[in-house]
Amino acid sequence: MRLYLAVFALLAAVHCEELINGDQVLRINAESEDHIQILKMLERDVDSGLDFWTHAVSTERPVDIRVPHSSLHAVKDFLKKNNIPFTVMINNVQELLVREREEMVRNAEIESKTKSFSFAAYHDLETIYNFMDTLANHSKLISKVKIGSTYENRSMYVLKFSTGGVKRPAIWIDAGIHAREWISHATAVWLADRIATDFKENRAPVPSILSKMDIYLMIVANPDGYVFTHRSSSPLYRFWCKSRSATSNPKCQGVDLNRNWDAEFGGPGASDDPCAEDYRGPSSQSEIEVKNIAKFIMSHGNFKSFMTLHSYMQFLMYPYGYIGIDAPDWPELHDVATKASKALNSWHGTVYKVGSIFHTIDQASGASVDWAYLRGIKYSFAFELRDTGEYGFLLPANQIVSTARETWFALRYIMKYVCDHPY
């Protein structure tokens, strides 16, 4: 099989300039443990040219893979020969990319002419940072706090929502630690505006929450990676996930920032290969972006909740990710997550699966939610936002507001619960 894979990997390399045009995303439904192991072997082969959007975990969950056009015939033939069922989830990735870029250009032109900001559009880093400035400049509630700089020397900012006081009990929310998950950044932008608006209009429960706690919202946790998904000359890098730091392999940059935390670092569920999508880095918290966030949270010392936004698959999860045992607070965390998912569902009927990271999505060592929980931040949760596979990482901009609004219903429930259950 290795020889067979090498053939289509070579074809992909030869046609590297056409890697996106004609690419498809295949949805694979493994039916046995043998199928799972074959798919895992494919994923470990970083030279295959395949981009695994979701992972081979069990027969209950599909595996989504973006396949270069030049390799489609070989991959489909390989799957058929191994009796592994699949369907075409996205027929032409290039079409969605072109549509996404055209919408962004049109929106930028409209915003420039009208001096407005659309929450139903994706924005680049500069525009998001300008939005944060505008929000902070027009409200005494909000301040824009720099917590450090990235590997490429970009500033890292959080928005602090506070009615006053020093190091009060606080809630942390971040988005975009994986660069390609654009819906997480866009959702966080909408959330920032919603928190400010609800406080200004005295809309429950925000005033009550902010009377007792502060909220810290980091809209872009991986600025270098996010900029790369926008500015790279190749459309292939719209799907860049990692940071942009140098590694031991000069041909492969970046670290998966959600495998770099000091939480059972180096265990199963992360790779030691710098070319792998889930490369964990050379040591725990080796990456400046992770260091900055961890230092800020620990120096504050009074965070009561830690929530991180990802995409996609519609999951609401809690610790642990690194091991399959229940966390000490499992019954309460599961109950809170279940009720939060019901609150989310009440807006648009969107269904989320609830469970521990390990049992819901995959084993993951060095993840931020485990790090937070292991440091005493009991109410630690991870969201995987829309959708369940129709668009994957290319969720259309016309779904941003509805995604953000339903996410707000869940976050609002969790924040009120945390506020009402001090520890």
Automatic annotation (TrEMBL):
Chaperone as UniProt keyword: no
Required cofactor(s): Zn(2+)
Primary localisation category: secreted
Compartment(s): Secreted
Any single biological process term in GO: proteolysis
Pfam families from the UniProt entry: Peptidase_M14 (PF00246), Propep_M14 (PF02244)
Residues forming the catalytic site: E384 (proton donor/acceptor)
Signal peptide: 1-16
InterPro entries reported for this sequence: CARBOXYPEPT_ZN_1, CPA_M14_CPD, M14A-like_propep, M14A_act_pep, Peptidase_M14
Peptidase M14 domain span: 121-418
Any one Gene Ontology molecular-function term assigned to this protein's record: metallocarboxypeptidase activity
Domain of life, source organism: Eukaryota
One GO cellular component term: extracellular space
Coiled-coil annotated spans: none
Keywords (A to Z) from UniProt: Carboxypeptidase, Disulfide bond, Hydrolase, Metal-binding, Metalloprotease, Protease, Secreted, Signal, Zinc
Entry similarity comment: Belongs to the peptidase M14 family.
Protein name: Peptidase M14 domain-containing protein
Upper taxonomic lineage: Eukaryota, Metazoa, Chordata, Craniata, Vertebrata
